[in-house]
Design brief:
The strands form 5 sheets. Strands 1-2-6-3-7-17-8 form a 7-stranded mixed β-sheet, with helices on both faces. Strands 12-14-10-15 form a 4-stranded antiparallel β-sheet, covered by helices on one side. It has a two-stranded antiparallel ribbon with strand order 4-5. It is built from 12 helices and 17 strands. The two termini are about 40 Å apart. The protein is α+β, with helices and mostly antiparallel strands and about 425 residues long. The protein has 2 domains: about 290 residues, Aminopeptidase (3-Layer(aba) Sandwich); about 110 residues, Alpha-Beta Plaits (2-Layer Sandwich). It binds zinc ion (2 copies). One zinc ion binds next to loops.
Amino acid sequence: MRSTKTILVVAALALQAGAYASPLEDAIASDYPYLDGLFKHLHLNPELSLQEFKTSDRMAEEMSALGFEVTRNIGKTGLVGLMRNGRGPTLMIRADMDGLPVQEKSGLDYSSKATQVNLEGMEMPVMHACGHDMHMTTLIGVARRMVELKDEWSGTLMLVAQPAEEAGGGALGMVADDIYGQVGRPDFALALHVIAKYPAGKIAFSDGLMYSSADSVKITVRGVATHGASPQLGRDPVYIGSLIVVALQGIVTREVSPIEPALITVGAFRGGSAPNVIADNARLDITVRANTEKTRYQLLDSIKRVAENTARAAGVPDDLLPIVEVLSEGAPTTTNDAALARRVREAMLGGMGADAFVDWRQTDMGAEDFPDLVNVDPPIPSVYFEVGGTPPEDLEAGTWAGHHSPLFKIVPEPAIRKGVEAMTLSALELLKKP
Ligand SMILES: [Zn+2]
Ligand SMILES: [Zn+2]
């Protein structure tokens, strides 16, 4: 009796001290120096959307070295690595590869100094300011574990390195290139994002909505040019554009239910060239976000109505009404499959315990293009989860920067280790032997 008690006490103390580690946790810890090197390499060498050439090379090398059969140039720089390991379902795990045109000011000793000429021919600074370097590192970390644990699962593991999540269109590009015709269609799909607002290494996800939809709308306001001192002879597109900027907010506050999230942000407004010239056009670039497809299309329809009628009210003739274009890179909402989310959560809970999680909450209307990979016909059930990236003390002190900021930084070790663990546990569950 007594000795059992002692063992229990020792075990409890060990648990309290965090000394207990599962064999999987141990394996990931021993592999971490390799993953840290990969993470820092990727962080130092970010590339812009659809120009992830060296990144794509590196991902292909990593996958080939592990014995994955690699298919490249799907959706330009995208690639897929396949490991067939006997009978069973196919699980797709996706990571995005692109950085952002941001000048890094994080102060990290492995800060990016990279520049790249963008698709418009302008040289831009480039930074992994959203954490996609963590996603790629985690993907490879999971691949390394799944190869080691090959005897413990059966089926096909499909790794996807996707271009252009930030610029939009990367996932659609892979689908347009017939990714599933080329390499086969998965039975389920997983993806993750490191998230600065949660404590480093903590997992968060819901059984339903994860991210809002996002659409880009361009409005070209057309006016009638004239001298700045004779406005009565023309129609001023800068003035009319300003009225439209304000009127658009009325859609959100007066047309959509106050308890339904909706967002219209005019991110760019360009027009005119000199103080004394009334121009003949102005341009608004807008992002539109919603949590349901119904609200999404309500907003898009209303923007057109409000833009046209605001111009009409300002005396613009019918043949010069604003041109409202919904650009094609729109992403639908990211929504987890409820049953699959519960299954994945159980697997993570079993291996990592309840302490591994924090409550998921939507605090903004961020979006993802991952749904474009899975909202095919028929849809592929999927789960998208988040992994915290900021030390708890920084969260408490408020000294942390959000995604896309030049100051963005994550602590890679807990985030990558826990990301690999959560994803590997999920993969082992979904590909478990019958
Ligand atoms: Zn981002
Ligand atoms: Zn991102």
